[in-house]
């Protein structure tokens, strides 16, 4: 994919390097000359420009990008970049960094944001994911599709432990996309059994999260976990 990243600070450079390592073509757009450090990510295309200016984005050929990442440390800038990328250049996927938690409500499809990433939210989710067994943890929200990435770590008492995936009645509008087992990432297939300690990763709509929880953890799990929350 061709990916443009607005903001070449630590966050932008880290994202760029990881994407390049995964085989993608990355362009870093930075408006401050002192932050222009091509030696830090030499495989990226570096552009000195203001990503909030239409002419700069046109010159950088943002319309040819598959993804735009608004990764600056300023939420106002990230919102403007997202809106321009989506409305003026029809970029298929826009990912925006949320710096201040109180601004998170603004990062919606109305501002051109498909996925909003709040570091405190991600950190909290990772903490929950690491310590929570027997409940559903929301890892990320995909704004445009109203879908969530959620994780459930299976306790030994889960009803379908030891059963193949095809016997699990996964609700409509939910999909099991990965099984994390120890250090392995497994792509689920119908005949794979699920085991105690497995981390099941689903994409589902918010409306069916309780159904997913009830199926995977048992019918009383929703009331039980809410009673303790």
From TrEMBL:
UniProt KW NAD keyword: yes
Residue ranges occupied by any RCK N-terminal domain in the UniProt entry: 1-117
PANTHER family in UniProt: POTASSIUM CHANNEL PROTEIN 2-RELATED-RELATED, TRK SYSTEM POTASSIUM UPTAKE PROTEIN TRKA
Keyword Ion transport: yes
GO cellular component, one term: plasma membrane
Molecular function terms from GO: potassium ion transmembrane transporter activity
Name this polypeptide is given: Trk system potassium uptake protein TrkA
Domain (RCK C-terminal): residue spans on this chain: 137-218
Pfam families: TrkA_C, TrkA_N
Assigned keywords, A-Z: Ion transport, NAD, Potassium, Potassium transport, Transport
Gene3D superfamilies: NAD(P)-binding Rossmann-like Domain, Regulator of K+ conductance, C-terminal domain
Lineage, opening ranks: Bacteria, Bacillati, Actinomycetota, Actinomycetes, Micromonosporales
Tree of life domain: Bacteria
């Amino acid at each position: 994919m061709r990916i443009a990243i607005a903001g070449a600070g630590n966050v932008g450079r880290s994202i760029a390097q990881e994407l390049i390592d995964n085989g993608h073509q990355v362009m870093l757009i930075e408006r401050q000359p002192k932050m222009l450090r091509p030696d830090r990510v030499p495989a990226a295309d570096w552009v000195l420009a203001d990503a909030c200016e239409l002419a700069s984005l046109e010159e950088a050929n943002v319309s040819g990008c598959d993804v735009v990442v608004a990764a600056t440390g300023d939420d106002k800038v990230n919102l403007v970049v997202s809106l321009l990328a989506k409305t003026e250049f029809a970029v298929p996927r826009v990912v925006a960094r949320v710096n201040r938690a109180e601004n998170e409500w603004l990062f919606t499809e109305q501002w051109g944001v498909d996925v909003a990433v709040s570091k405190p939210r991600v950190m909290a989710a990772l903490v929950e994911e690491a310590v929570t067994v027997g409940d559903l943890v929301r890892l990320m929200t995909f704004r445009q599709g109203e879908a969530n990435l959620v994780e459930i770590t299976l306790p030994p008492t889960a009803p379908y432990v030891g059963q193949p995936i095809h016997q699990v009645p996964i609700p409509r509008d939910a999909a099991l996309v990965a099984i994390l087992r120890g250090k392995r990432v497994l792509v689920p297939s119908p005949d794979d059994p699920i085991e105690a300690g497995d981390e099941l990763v689903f994409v589902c709509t918010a409306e069916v999260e309780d159904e997913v929880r009830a199926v995977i953890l048992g019918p009383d799990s929703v009331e039980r976990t809410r009673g303790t929350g």
